[in-house]
Amino acid sequence: MQFENTKYRSHKLSIRIKPDGFSLYVLDNNQDLVASKSEQIALTSYSTNELIEIFRSKLEPDLLAHDVEVCYETEIYTLVPNGIFEESAFSDLLHFQHPNFNPADTKIVKNTLPALKAWLLYMMPNSIYEAIKLINAHAVLKHPMTVYLSEIPPINAVFVKNREGRMDVVVMQQELLMLANSYNQSTDEDFLYHILNTFETLQLDKNSLPVHIYGNEISESLLVLLRKYLRTVITT
Asked: Residue 221, exposed/middle/buried by CB under 10 A (0-12, 13-18, 19+)?
């Protein structure tokens, strides 16, 4: 099924690519969602030309030709301060952070975070990168952590985003980014462990630094557990 050409011609298209499939979102000028659908297709299994055909079979050409944003989900990412490293070192930086990272047939994408004076680097398969750019050369590429970091206010706090099987932890101190990392988690105890380990590693004060929890599935049992060890836990 395709989105209707005439109905969504002037709208923004957001594509969210995950390891097991992708989702399509159409947003109006107020950034309100007007249509969406998901496909269980592992895009990494296809060539550039095959990917172009997949996208074109799901979307009308006019929608692909206008305002397009692609959010590619991968755990292979890292943050680096602006201006310290040459782009030729980006592959080595990712490999240092992720020893299993294989740069073959991949494109390293750089997202700029002006407020944090940093870059977020992440990998994308060449086939997906090339297909997107051939369909729309002006498509904006982002990593989910880029979106998350852009929304975090410059206050002293620990920010934790809960998502399926993972958690993203960001620490801000004196308007400086101290940490941005992701961890596996499947239980309330896992969630608590990674937060407490962050406090211990960075020598943060559990009595004064608030913890902001984001996500759609924050259980009451998790909040009760966190509040046993942390003075201020705020849900958003």
From this structure: exposed
